[in-house]
Amino acid sequence: MSDYNPYQASSVPGLAGTGANPGGGISPTVISHLSRTKPWVQFLGILGMIISGLILLAALFAMVGGASAGNVLFRGAAGVPPAAAMMVLGVVYLLIGAVYFFISFKLFGYGSGIGSLRYSGQIEHLELALDRQRSVWKSIGILMVIMMVVWVLGVIAMLVFATRMAGEASRSFPPPISTPSAPE
Fold first, then answer.
1. What count of other Cβ atoms lies within 10 Å of the Cβ of residue 7?
2. Distance, CA of 74 to CA of 71 (rounded, Å)
3. Dist CA 38 CA 48 (whole Å)
4. What is the DSSP string of 13-61?
5. Considering the entire predicted model, what is its pTM?
6. Burial level of 30, CB count in 10 A (0-12/13-18/19+)?
7. Cα-atom radius of gyration of the chain, to the nearest Å?
8. What tens digit of pLDDT does each residue of 85-116 get?
């Protein structure tokens, strides 16, 4: 059983009345520094969740609106029906929104871990907060590697597409008209 008492007065300077009890060798400065990042971490987590919700709404509008009105109002370019293009765009938005929500949720959890540390001052809560921070950065790192691969594949696809289009364009032009040469 732990000796933690949430009603005990804080011994951390600047955190009076929060119940923080720095035990286990945690410096009050460490707790203070992490506590000062908590509002920003949670603000960004909440903001990210709101943005991901808006992205998910945009995805639904793209899929529903594109499917219902796309083929009636617009003609597709390059043989792709607009409804299909809007559905693909909607799926891409769904993926982006899910990724934003995932990272934002992890970021909010990191802020909650900081809050637990602030109120308890226990080494276990510091370890929890740092593990959640590690998880946030690991997720962002993995996503960045995926993004770099997607960018490289996208550039290659655009080069292939541009090369094919240039080849088709050169075949569609009529041959140059030759002018008769003047007699000598």
1. 5
2. 6
3. 15
4. TT-TTTT----TT--HHHHHHHHHHHHHHHHHHHHHHHHHHHHHHHHHH
5. 0.67
6. middle
7. 29
8. 788 888 999 999 999 999 999 999 999 999 99
- Looking at residue 130, its pLDDT comes to 95
Asked if residue 67 lies in contact with residue 129, where contact means CB atoms within 8 angstroms, the answer is no
pLDDT score at 34:
93
Q: Cα separation of 23 and 5, whole Å?
A: 12
The C-alpha atoms of residue 70 and residue 175 are separated, in whole angstroms, by 39
Nearest residue to 81 (alpha-carbon basis) of 91, 90, 72 = 72
| Residue whose C-alpha is closest to residue 119's, from 56, 35, 27 | 35
Nearest to 130 by CA among 142, 148, 116: 116
